[in-house]
């Protein structure tokens, strides 16, 4: 990814993957690929949430 994906876009893509999995829309090759992508998206979302939480705590500590 050359351009950083925003949290909302990553979460929406993750939801799309989950929906496809729940509806059995993926063949075995797609499933493997989509699971890897989902793993990347989960890490990205988790990292963004952690960073935001740290920034909020820092701001609140300054008051």
Provide an overview of this structure:
The protein contains 2 helices and no strands. By secondary structure, it is mainly alpha-helical. Helices cover 81% and strands 0% of the residues. It starts with 6 loop residues before the first helix and ends with a helix. The mean pLDDT is 93.
List the helices and strands and how they pair.
Blueprint: H1 7-22, H2 28-62
Helix pairs in contact: 1-2
Q: Span between N and C termini?
A: 37 Å
Helical amount: over 70%
Percent in strands: under 5%
**Distinct helical segment count:** 2
Biggest sheet layout = none
Per DSSP E runs of 2 or more residues, the count of β-strands stands at 0
Q: What is the averaged pLDDT score?
A: 93
**Helix-strand string:** HH
Uncertain segments are none
Radius of gyration: 15 Å
* Principal-axis shape: elongated
Assembly type of the chains comes to single chain
Alpha-beta classification = mainly alpha
Which features characterize this protein?
single chain, 63 residues, mainly alpha, 2 helices, elongated
């Amino acid at each position: 990814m050359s351009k950083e994906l925003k949290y909302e876009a990553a979460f929406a893509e993750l939801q799309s993957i989950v929906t496809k999995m729940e509806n059995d829309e993926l063949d075995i090759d797609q499933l493997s690929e989509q699971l890897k992508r989902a793993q990347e998206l989960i890490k990205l979302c988790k990292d963004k949430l952690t960073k935001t939480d740290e920034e909020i705590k820092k701001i609140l500590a300054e008051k």
